[in-house]
Amino acid sequence: MSLFSSLQVSASGMAAQRTRAEMLVENMANAETTRTPGGGPYRRQDVVFSSDVQESPFSAAFQNELSTGVRVADVVTDDRAPELRYMPGHPDADANGYVAFPNMNPAEEMVNLMNAQRSYEGNVSAMAAVKDMISHSIEIMK
Known about the structure:
This protein is of the alpha+beta class. The protein has helices at 3-29, 106-141, and strands spanning 45-55, 66-77, 83-86, 98-101. Strands 1-2 form a two-stranded antiparallel sheet. The longest helix is centred in the last third of the chain and has 36 residues, at 106-141.
């Protein structure tokens, strides 16, 4: 794997983790949303990653060398039943006085967000290391 391919792999990981972080923030922002345009409470969403062949813009110079990165394959909607809370005065309450709220755990969402942040930072560190290797290689060739 060339150094340029390594940059492409890290960039794909950063893009995937950014999408994951956006979904997690959206989930937390809608933790109390009881009514959506589609009807019913907000449903938690999560991203599914898959491996993806990354082609470097410099692949012609490196004998079409391919490396494996990551991409967002799908965004899945949580199918768990909503959490019912007894709130008879709420405008979205059913005939029995229960309101359907999204079934999500804020602590779990925060842990997932921290994990996405750490993964993103890991890719940034890998890119910085590759950049340093490229710089040192250029210095050696002078």
